[in-house]
Amino acid sequence: MAYSVDAFTQILTQDILPIASNPILWTLTSILGASIILRRIYVPCTTVRKLQLARSAVEKLLANQNLTELVSDSSTLPLYNHHIVNECMEHKRHLLRIQQKIDAIRVEECTAQKLPWMDYLSPTRIFNRVRAISLCYKEIRTLQSKIEHSKALISKRRSDLMVQLHATEV
């Protein structure tokens, strides 16, 4: 038992501590950690596949917002009907514009594959691609929050309408 503790102490003091106390290693480690944190915060999505998955999730969320149900439930308030339908159609148009941007990123990626390898691996091209994907992802998340907020407002309007109808019946 004493042999293993002595061997461990010797390895720790002779091999690991000089490496761990190296300022270059600490600098590289902190730069790597900071870059990982900044990437997660500012660039949460870097692939077209992840972008497409986020877009399809928003599309499903938008499909759940059934227009016929919205129109029939609040038929006594045509202003709300018109407003709800227009809002839903605007969300769909926004989603189509996002899909056009995703398609443009894909086309650019296909044309970039025909470039020489130096141009294909250019930091400027890679930065612009990641930036375009990130902006598109943020736009998708903004649209998702707008749709969720809209659904909450519609639900509130419905409950207010039901309370009004119940109050007039009593």
Percentage beta strand? under 5%
Most strands sheet:
none
Mean pLDDT: 82
What is the N-to-C order of secondary-structure elements (H for helix, E for strand)? HHHHHHH
Number of strands: 0
Label the structural class.
mainly alpha
Report the helical percentage. Answer: over 70%
End-to-end distance, in Å?
86 Å
Helix count, per DSSP?
Answer: 7
What does this structure look like?
With 170 residues, the chain is mostly helical. The protein is built from seven helices and no strands. It has helices spanning 2-20, 23-42, 48-64, 67-73, 78-112, 117-120, 123-169. Helix 3 (48-64) packs parallel to helix 7 and helix 5 packs antiparallel against helix 7 (123-169). The protein starts with a helix and ends with a helix.
What are the SSEs and their pairings?
Layout: H1 2-20, H2 23-42, H3 48-64, H4 67-73, H5 78-112, H6 117-120, H7 123-169
Keywords: Membrane, Transmembrane, Transmembrane helix
Transmembrane segments: 24-42
